[in-house]
C-alpha cells in the first residue's frame, strides 16, 4: 500500500480460508508475504499486499456467520435497536453472508449484497432479496435503479475486507438517503494492539480500523461518525454509527471518549506499532514453547474452531500436524478438509471434547465465553485450553 510504513512481518501465508481437500494436499499452495503497515497520512493500518477479492470471496467461501450463538444474538439485538431508534423503511446489508442479520427483518424491507454466491444462495432460498455482487460503484448504481435509495445500511466484518475504501464510501453515498444511517462493525485496532491479537491480520482483513483511521477516510466523503459502541464480538469490535455531514444529528460523547482512548494508547505513533511487533515475536516463541512442552510430555493437542485467524497463528508460529493432531469445527464447509498451509485435518465437532483429549488449542478464541460454557464437562474433568491472547497460556 502507498505511503505505508511496515512494522510487522507475519511471513508467508496461504489464503486464510482456503481449506484444502485431500486431493489438494500434494499440490503446491500459493503463499503471500503478509506484512502490516501504517499509512502515514490517514493512520489506517493495513496489510501491505492485498489480494484480488475474486480469489478470496467466491462460490467456495466457507465462513457462515450463523455458526455462533454470540453472533446471532448480537444481530438480533442490533435489529431491535435499529427498528426502535431509526425506524428505517428500507435496509441494505453489505456482506449479508448466510442471512443471519437480515433474517431479523421483514422480507420486503431488506436487501442483501453478498459476493460469495454459495452463501448468498442460502439467504435467497429463504425468500430474501439478495444479489451475488461485490460492493462497488457498479453495484450501487444497479441497485439504485432497481431498488431506489435506502434508509439504513449495515455492514459487519466486510468493509475492512475491501481495498478501495474511497469507492466503498462513494458507492454508499449514492444509495443512502441524505438522512440515512450507515452502521459499520469491524474488529478494533485498539483491542488488537492491547490483546496482542496479531491474527486479526490475514489476507482477507485488508484493514483493522481505528476510529481515527476510519474517520480520516470518511471525512473525504462527507460522512461523520456520530456514535460508537464497543463490542466483545470477534475479540473486541467497534460498531460505528455514521451519517452524512448534511444531516445535523448530534454527535454523542462516545466518539470523543473513544478518540481519547486511542490517542492515549498512541494509535497515531509508529513507536506503538514497533512495540506491538516486538510483543508479537515474543508471543510466537511462548506459544511454540507451550506446544512443545505438552507434546514432549507425550500428550495430545487438538484444535477447537478453525478460523481465518488461526491460519495466521499456525503459519506464523509454524505449528503443524506434528503438534496439533486435528481440529474440530461445527462448519460443514470446513469439515473433512485440511488447514491452509499447515495441513492439519479438520473433523466435524462430535458434540463434546472426547475423553482422551486433555489439551485443546482454542482457534476460535473470540468465542471463548460461548465455548467454555459449552465445554463445562471438559473443564470439570481437568481439561485445559491453550490460548495465545493476550499472552500465550494454558487455561
Ligand atoms: P470465526 O472466528 O467467526 O472466523 P474467522 O476468523 O474465520 O472470521 O470462526 C469461528 C469458527 O469456530 C467457525 O468455523 C465455527 C467454529 N465454532 C465451533 O466449532 N464451535 C463453536 O462453539 C463456535 C462458537 C464456533
Can you offer a commentary on this structure?
- This protein has 395 residues and is α/β, with parallel strands linked by helices.
- The protein folds into two domains: 4-36 and 271-394, 3-Layer(aba) Sandwich (Rossmann fold), CATH 3.40.50; 42-268, Vaccinia Virus protein VP39 (Rossmann fold, 3-Layer(aba) Sandwich), CATH 3.40.50.150.
- It has twelve helices and 17 strands.
- A seven-stranded mixed β-sheet has the order 6-5-4-7-8-11-10, with helices on both faces. Strands 14-13-12-15-16-17 form a six-stranded mixed β-sheet, covered by helices on one side. It has a four-stranded antiparallel β-sheet with strand order 1-2-3-9, with helices on one face.
- Helix 4 packs parallel to helix 5.
- The structure holds thymidine-5'-diphosphate (TYD).
Kindly report the CATH topology of the largest domain.
Answer: Rossmann fold
CATH class of the largest domain: Alpha Beta
Order of helices and strands: EEEHHEEHEHEHEHEHEEHHEHEEEHHEE
Counting DSSP E segments of at least 2 residues, the number of strands comes to 17
Helix content: 25-40%
Strand content: 15-25%
Anisotropy-based shape: globular
Within CATH, the superfamily of the largest domain carries the name Vaccinia Virus protein VP39
Backbone CA Rg: 21 Å
The tally of structural domains comes to: 2
Count of helical stretches: 12
Most strands sheet: 7 strands, mixed
Q: What are the bound molecules?
A: thymidine-5'-diphosphate
Question: What average pLDDT do the residues reach?
Answer: 97
Q: Give me the CATH architecture of the largest domain, please.
A: 3-Layer(aba) Sandwich
- Span of the ends, CA to CA: 39 Å
Structural class: alpha/beta
Amino acid at each position: 500500500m502507498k505511503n505505508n510504513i511496515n512494522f510487522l512481518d507475519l511471513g508467508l501465508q496461504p489464503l486464510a480460508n482456503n481449506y484444502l481437500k485431500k486431493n489438494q494436499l500434494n499440490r503446491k499452495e500459493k503463499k503471500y508475504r503478509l506484512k502490516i503497515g501504517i499509512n502515514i497520512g490517514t493512520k489506517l493500518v493495513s496489510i501491505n499486499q492485498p489480494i484480488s477479492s475474486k480469489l478470496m470471496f467466491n462460490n467456495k467461501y466457507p465462513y457462515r456467520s450463523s455458526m455462533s450463538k454470540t453472533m446471532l444474538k448480537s444481530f438480533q439485538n442490533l435489529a431491535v435497536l435499529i427498528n426502535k431508534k431509526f425506524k428505517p423503511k428500507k435496509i441494505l446489508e453489505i456482506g449479508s453472508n448466510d442471512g443471519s442479520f437480515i433474517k431479523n427483518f421483514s422480507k420486503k424491507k431488506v436487501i442483501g449484497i453478498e459476493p460469495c454466491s454459495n452463501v448468498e444462495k442460502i439467504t435467497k432460498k429463504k425468500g430474501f432479496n439478495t444479489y451475488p455482487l461485490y460492493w462497488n460503484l457498479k453495484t450501487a448504481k444497479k441497485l439504485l435503479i432497481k431498488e431506489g435509495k435506502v434508509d439504513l445500511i449495515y455492514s459487519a466484518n466486510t468493509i475492512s475486507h475491501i481495498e478501495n475504501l474511497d469507492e466503498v464510501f462513494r458507492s454508499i453515498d449514492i444509495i443512502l438517503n441524505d438522512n440515512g444511517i450507515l452502521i459499520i462493525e469491524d474488529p478494533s485496532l485498539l483491542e488488537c494492539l492491547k490483546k496482542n491479537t496479531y491474527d486479526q491480520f490475514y489476507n482477507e482483513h485488508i484493514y483493522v480500523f481505528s476510529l481515527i483511521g476510519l474517520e480520516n477516510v470518511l471525512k473525504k466523503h462527507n460522512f461523520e461518525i456520530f456514535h460508537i459502541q464497543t463490542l466483545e464480538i470477534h475479540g473486541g469490535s467497534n460498531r460505528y454509527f455514521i451519517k452524512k455531514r448534511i444531516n445535523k444529528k448530534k454527535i454523542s460523547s462516545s466518539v470523543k471518549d473513544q478518540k481519547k482512548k486511542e490517542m492515549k494508547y498512541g494509535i497515531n505513533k509508529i513507536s506503538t506499532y514497533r512495540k506491538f511487533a516486538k510483543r508479537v515475536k515474543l508471543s510466537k516463541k511462548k506459544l511454540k514453547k507451550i506446544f512443545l512442552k505438552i507434546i514432549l510430555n507425550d500428550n495430545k493437542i487438538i484444535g477447537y474452531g478453525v478460523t481465518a485467524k488461526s491460519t495466521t497463528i499456525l503459519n506464523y508460529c509454524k505449528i503443524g500436524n506434528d503438534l496439533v493432531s486435528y481440529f474440530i469445527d461445527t462448519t460443514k464447509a470446513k469439515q473433512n478438509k485440511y488447514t491452509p498451509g499447515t495441513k492439519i485435518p479438520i473433523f466435524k465437532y462430535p458434540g463434546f471434547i472426547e475423553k482422551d483429549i486433555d489439551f485443546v488449542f482454542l482457534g476460535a478464541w473470540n468465542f471463548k465465553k460461548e465455548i467454555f460454557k459449552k465445554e463445562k464437562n471438559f473443564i470439570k474433568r481437568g481439561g485445559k485450553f491453550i490460548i495465545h491472547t493476550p499472552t500465550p497460556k494454558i487455561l
